[in-house]
């Protein structure tokens, strides 16, 4: 996920950088610490708007410590609503989580609009 965030930060000529992130579910007992450890990558990517999905992402929200406004969505449907309200022409959007979160549905719905 950190590598993907780095790619978002390297995008040129974008209006804003929006990241929609859900949990990485394969991390085991280190899950909280590893999610929190993404904070530097999010900040380095110069994310303008961050939407986090589900309670497993709370450690990342806490680690950002008000350095970036964070929107928390209960599920993929709520994240989609927030993204539709946020995204505009020229924005770069990163959508990333474990496949089991179901973000493929969000991408499919967004690209159909």
Quick rundown:
The protein is of the alpha/beta class.
Could you give a short account of the major beta sheet? 4 strands, parallel
Percent range of helical residues: 40-55%
Task: Specify the overall morphology.
Answer: globular
Largest sheet, spatial ordering of strands: 3-2-1-4
Protein described:
There is one protein chain. The chain has helices at 2-9, 31-36, 39-44, 58-64, 76-86, 103-112, and strands spanning 17-21, 49-53, 70-73, 92-96. It is globular. Strands 3-2-1-4 form a four-stranded parallel beta sheet, with helices on both faces. Strand 2, helix 4 and strand 3 form a beta-alpha-beta unit. It is an alpha/beta fold. It has one domain (2-112): Protein-Tyrosine Phosphatase, Chain A, CATH 3.90.190. Helices cover 42% and strands 17% of the residues.
List keywords for this structure.
42% helix, alpha/beta, 6 helices, 113 residues, 4 strands, globular, four-stranded parallel beta sheet
Write the layout of secondary structure elements.
Elements: H1 2-9, E1 17-21, H2 31-36, H3 39-44, E2 49-53, H4 58-64, E3 70-73, H5 76-86, E4 92-96, H6 103-112
Parallel strand pairs: 1-2, 1-4, 2-3
